[in-house]
Amino acid sequence: MKHRDRRSSSRRAAQPSRLWWGVALIAWVLGAVLLAINLYGLAQPLRKPGLGQTDQASLRFVPDQVWSYEKSLKEINALDPSLPEDQFLRDANRVVNRSLVHVDWNRVDPEAYRQRVPVWENYFLYLLGKFSGLPQFERYHYADYRRNIRRGIGICGDAATVLSSVLDRYQVDNRIVSFEGHVLVEAGTGSNGVLLDPDFGVVLDVPLDALATRLPDIRQRYLDAGYSVREIDYLMPIYLGQYRLFDDTYHFMSKRYLFENASYILKWLLPLGLMMASSAWLWVVWSRAGSIR
Q: Which of 34, 60, 246, 268 has CA 20 to 30 A from 186's CA?
């Protein structure tokens, strides 16, 4: 009789393990699903198919040729810092300008243009874009310049952060200049600084402190680059306004920079952690169950 009671108490003690068995199994399946989503995403293009070729009505500037992600990276890697500084800056500005297509940011389809980050690219950013109601995630601006180029779209702020990151890579002193309505990059500072507009692909050839006094020269540079009077008339008053200076991309978007990089690490660690922890727990439960028998 006592022996039977001991067996009954052992079975009762084993009952809670069934609940944890189920929890661990669910955690493993969830981890496997998230891992499968990540692996699927490795083979998916972050760039909209036909970007700049079949959708020119949605573009602010229509490029002659849309560079691929691979072409852009190759050109960035081929930049030659041994060239005279003015030539190097022109080359870097041109590469960034050719690497991003300027879309009408708030009017294009956020799903088609991957402004809302796809679930297979980063499920953290996807969930925030889908359910948070926060505009910065519904139409997301990447902090990492390689992700910006991989997606292939942007506006002035995106082009400026990409160029700033490229110049940082080549150890060229620079800062981001954010006006109310447009964003530039200044390479160098003070009287030796040179303003660059990677969004328009124009080198202004003036330092920031001389910008307001050199507007006729700047206007001519945009005209020489082929831009319309309407586009130029939009920019000139902006350059007379106030601006803010940022040391680099991190300073320009600190919280997003940190969160984005963390999310791209955690999107792999979370499923792997779930699968490893649940597998270990299932093994422990199975071992205990075998000992009770």
A: 60
**pTM of the predicted structure, to 2 decimals:** 0.89
pLDDT at residue 20 in the model? 75
Strands 153-154 and 101-102: parallel
Report the candidate in 242, 246, 165, 201 with the shortest Cα–Cα distance to residue 93: 201
- Helix-helix angle 69-77:85-99, to 10 degrees: 170
Q: Return d(Cα 117, Cα 206) in angstroms, integer.
A: 37
Residue 270's nearest CA partner among 164, 127, 135 is 127
Look at 188 and 137; give whichever has higher pLDDT. Answer: 137
Task: Give the integer Cα–Cα distance in Å for 201 and 5.
Answer: 84
Distance, in Å, from the CA atom of 153 to the CA atom of 107, rounded to the nearest integer, reads 13
